[in-house]
Amino acid sequence: QAIDDDCNQTGQLLAAMLDWPQGTFASRVQLEAGHVLVEREVDGGLETLRLRLPAVLTADLRLNEPRYATLPNIMKAKKKPLEVIPAAELGVPAGPPRLKVLQVQEPPPRAGGEKVESVESLVGKLRHAGRI
Amino acid sequence: PRTAMAMAWRAAPRAAARLLLGRRGIASCIDPSTGLTEDQKEFQKVALDFAAKEMAPYMAEWDEKEIFPVETMRKAAQLGFGGIYVKPDVGGSGLSRLDTSIIFEALATGCTSTTAYMSIHNMCVWMIDTFGNEEQRHRFCPSLCSMEKFASYCLTEPGSGSDAASLLTSAQRKGDTYVLNGSKAFISGGGDTDVYVVMCRTGGPGPKGISCLVLEKGMPGLSFGKKEKKVGWNSQPTRAVIFEDCVVPVGNRLGAEGQGFSIAMQGLNGGRINIASCSLGAAHASVLLAQEHLTVRKQFGEPLANNQYLQFRLAEMATRLVAARLMVRNAARALQEGREDAAVLCSMAKLFATDECFGICNQALQMHGGYGYLKDYAVQQFVRDIRVHQILEG
Fold first, then answer.
1. Residue A71: closest C-alpha in chain B
2. Where is the Electron transfer flavoprotein alpha/beta-subunit N-terminal domain positioned along the sequence (chain A) (predicted)?
3. Distance (Å, rounded) from C-alpha B68 to C-alpha A53?
4. Is B356 assigned a catalytic role?
5. In 3D, which of B219, B184, B216, B186 has the Cα closest to residue B199?
6. Which residues of A touch B79 (CB under 8 A)?
């Protein structure tokens, strides 16, 4: 599962920052000399792109079958060291944030509705409110 | 997804996999992961994944065509399922009896018959690992843990089942060999497996005259009977194993002369937990199948699930499943802790769980009505496969 809260942004943002081509929702990837052929899952079906390397790809679940974890590896996983590297050591600036909060507000409290007697009356009211 | 689950069992492999996995997210009163450690939940997850993807879609075919699924079992061995409670220095996974029970219970939801064979294989490797000397452990265990080779356990004879200590297969000492004569009956994997752990008589009558020898297919004088036709367990071949002046080097004896019966009895404790665990998996799968069917099938204008009688029966099945599971896991803990009451608890757990789980599977079949009797539906195979669990392993 993606770590960006399923916002579908990380790969695209990275490609823009690096100015590299992007092939997202990849379900099939084939390397060629200096290029990569990416088959993408799109709403209308499949789209195939040929991208100049280097490129950024994001994976769709149809790209491959994850391997099973082996029993010994499961037991070793707990003992693996977790190395913590401060961002400064990598030369990555921690701030300033590139997002500005404009406004935070609660959704309006739920107002009461109105009951009507007939379908004609309902249609009339919706028209009057500019909804249809 | 629940409607599709019943269909998945009898239709497309991929669908079966995704749906059996999907149900794990549902909080359920029969959830087998409650009370387990994080590691145990991970083992269980791998085993359930493997069962759903690699076994469940094929269990009907393996049963119908009597296929011994060597490649699938080798895939399982690659994940560490070939020597689950065997020490790591010879290729095993070094897990506990409780871990093992959890794993077999999970695998059995995919194919009970194949999992039962795997548990027998595991027991044989454990015997060599535990009672063999260093040379024997390193000679036999690695290729068994990887399932490059398969093992069979030979204790039962035509004349000695429950009365195992009265076995007649003789092993006469001649120089630095034993010469075996006799036959074993009902041997799981017999004829298709490579390594045979054989209990035979080297001394006088009774348990103290029994020793344990490891034989290999291809040894002169070792032959096999016809493949038996069985009601279930059809994904593993069952044959008689015949010894006619079969010469075995003394270096193939596990432990001391006369230690065989003790080895057999200790093996049986774990074997009983394993078989009981397989029954638990079958019962769990059957309860889910029944639950699914009750929501889909309509009679008298309503889904069967609205029927209070059936709701009560399903609740009873769930209760009995959890009770059986607790018995088995309690026995597994006692065994791995080396407690005095371990043997008795293993026997009780095996007795209780295999009987209860058969009842659960049978009841699940009944809830399917006439459809439960068709081989298109998986529930009948669980019933047939676990019926024998009430008989073997004492």
1. B80
2. 8-89
3. 48
4. no
5. B184
6. 68-71
CB B80 within 8 A of CB B93: yes
Maximum pairwise Cα distance, chain A: 71
B93 with A68: Cβ contact below 8 A: no
Query: How close B311 comes to chain A (CA, Å)?
Result: 37
Task: Say if residue B142 is preceded by a cis peptide, omega within 30 of 0.
Answer: no
A67 lies within 8 A of chain B by CB: no
Per-residue pLDDT tens, chain B, 394 aa: give them.
Answer: 444 444 444 443 444 444 444 444 233 889 999 999 999 999 999 999 999 999 999 999 999 999 999 999 999 999 999 999 999 999 999 999 999 999 999 999 999 999 999 999 999 999 999 999 999 999 999 999 999 999 999 999 999 999 999 999 999 999 999 999 999 999 999 999 999 999 999 999 999 999 999 999 999 999 999 999 999 999 999 999 999 999 999 999 999 999 999 999 999 999 999 999 999 999 999 999 999 999 999 999 999 999 999 999 999 999 999 999 999 999 999 999 999 999 999 999 999 999 999 999 999 999 999 999 999 999 999 999 999 999 998 7
CB-based contact, A69 to chain B, within 8 Å: yes
Residues B175 and B202 in one domain: yes
pTM of this structure: 0.84
One domain, residues B251 and B266: no
Looking at the fold, whether B155 and B124 belong to one and the same domain comes out as: no
Same-domain check for residues B75 and B182: no
In a domain, B65, yes or no: yes
In a domain, B16, yes or no: no
- Contact list, A77 vs chain B (CB under 8 Å): 42
Using DSSP bridges, classify how beta strands B170-174 and B177-188 pair: parallel, antiparallel or unpaired.
antiparallel
Question: What residues of B are in contact with residue A80 (Cβ under 8 Å)?
Answer: none
SS3 state at B227: coil
ipTM score above 0.85: no
A132 touches chain B (CB under 8 A): no
Domain range for B348 = 261-388
**Residue A68: closest CA among chain B residues belongs to which residue?**
B46
* Any domain includes B394: no
Q: Are B80 and A69 an interchain contact pair (Cβ–Cβ within 8 Å)?
A: no
A75 at interface of B, judged by CB pairs closer than 8 A: yes
| Rg of chain A over all Cα atoms, to the nearest angstrom | 25
CB contacts < 8 A (A, B): 31
Task: Identify whether B269 is part of a domain.
Answer: yes
The label of the residue with tokens 């040894």 reads B219
Let me know whether B242 and B266 are in one domain. Answer: no
